[in-house]
Amino acid sequence: MNADMMEALQAVASERGLSIDTLFAALADALESAYKRRPDAWEYSWVTIDPDTMEFRVFAQELDEYGEPFGDEFEVTPDDFGRIAAQTTRQVMSQRIREAERELKYEEYAGREGDIVTGIIQQTDSRYTLLDLGRVEALLPQAEQVPHERPDPNTRLKAYIVEVRKTPKGPQIVVSRTHPGLIKRMFELEVPEIADGIVEIMACAREPGHRTKIAVRSNDENVDPVGACVGARGSRVRMIVNEMKGEKIDIVPFSEITQDFVMKALSPAKVKDVLLDDTTGTATVVVPDYQLSLAIGKEGQNARLAARLTGWRVDIKSETEMAEEKAYAEIDWADGEWIVNEETGENMWQPGGDGEAISQAEWEKMVNEAEGAGASPDAGSGDVESGDTDAATDDDHAEDAAGDGPVASDDEE
């Protein structure tokens, strides 16, 4: 019988992937639980098992008034456990084996956050999708699924492990199809140069299901980082695009020079110049007029991805816009500000200095007259630069404000 028991334990260990020592510990716990259900059982007792002969023995020890064991150990092995004890042994043994299996599965995936797993789709609903990874199941929440991607049941799917949780029912593995790390890990699998450390992925920006941009650099001057990721005739990147159900992938070379990096991040648009503002973290990008829509991308997608890739706020302007802004900035505007009349609630223009405030209607009339005389109004601030005083002489209010209001005049006759 002892030989049969040993053979049975070895079969269970092989089938469940557990060690013999784990099963011996589970059997000892089961026998101890069975013994303690006897009416004559000692409160403090334990079971030992000889792994060679499969002989088990029960030992006990007395407890003092504080519940601490004292005195010599003595054997209390019963001659017969009985039928109820045998059932208890079986139940506890099964429970310990399940607990050991759950712990083994958790240890297998604990610390694997950031890895890629391939699973078979088992179940899909509006909340989540279950992936069968073999010994365990992975949970793909709706929030981690690519929009409009409807994987078919019983098909294989690659996913990125974002979290491994330890629960009473076993490990819960949460995976994602939207995480940028999924693209990085897939490139590591497809491109040997990345796995070997010759090529590095420096940054990755992604809009799942639509487009991804990655920046790569090479640690070997003889290796082209972009070419290594693309592969012969695009074979390497095509494998990843197919796995991602047609999501477009742009591969750009990384540069330590920020202006150069921003230019390349906006590929395929051609950039004329990049102006950096370190205080606001803004990169003003100047592009030819015909390249403006390409640089911005559909619904601003290209600009957003470039901003995430570089870490700079990207402001794209055409050459015409930049020229207009430069000319606008060179105008010497008169001082003043818009105020609100507390009695009437009307907007009033208050010239700099001690000039008298004028109403918005009067100001607009004066601006129109100034424009007719060749002036350059500032519609945003209400300032006007005029080269002819005659435009203001027809209106008494404009005449009062000509010296210090929104009209800057030349020498009067």
Question: Could you explain how this protein is built, in words?
Answer:
The chain is α+β, with helices and mostly antiparallel strands and 413 residues long. It folds into five domains: 2-109, N Utilization Substance Protein A, Chain:P, domain 4, CATH 3.30.1480; 116-176, Nucleic acid-binding proteins (OB fold (Dihydrolipoamide Acetyltransferase, E2P), Beta Barrel), CATH 2.40.50.140; 185-254, K homology (KH) domain (GMP Synthetase, Chain A, domain 3, 2-Layer Sandwich); 255-330, GMP Synthetase, Chain A, domain 3; 336-408, no CATH class. Helix content is 34%, strand content 28%. The strands form six sheets. Strands 4-5-6-8-7 form a five-stranded mixed β-barrel. A three-stranded antiparallel sheet has the order 1-2-3. Strands 9-10-11 form a three-stranded mixed sheet, sandwiched between helices. Helix 2 runs antiparallel to helix 3, helix 4 (180-190) crosses helix 7 (235-243) and helix 8 (258-265) runs antiparallel to helix 10. Residues 375-413 have low confidence and may be disordered.
* DSSP strand count: 20
Number of helices: 13
The average pLDDT is: 80
CATH topological fold name of the largest domain: N Utilization Substance Protein A, Chain:P, domain 4
Radius of gyration over all CA atoms, rounded: 39 Å
Largest sheet: 5 strands, mixed, barrel
Placed side by side, the strands forming the largest sheet appear as: 4-5-6-8-7
- SS-based class: alpha+beta
First CA to last CA: what distance?
127 Å
- What's the level 1 CATH class of the largest domain? Alpha Beta
Helix content estimate: 25-40%
**How would you sum up the global shape?**
elongated
Number of domains as seen in the coordinates? 5
> Could you tell me the strand content as a percent range?
25-35%
Point out poorly predicted stretches: 375-413
CATH superfamily of the largest domain: NusA, N-terminal domain
Give the second-level CATH assignment, the architecture of the largest domain.
2-Layer Sandwich
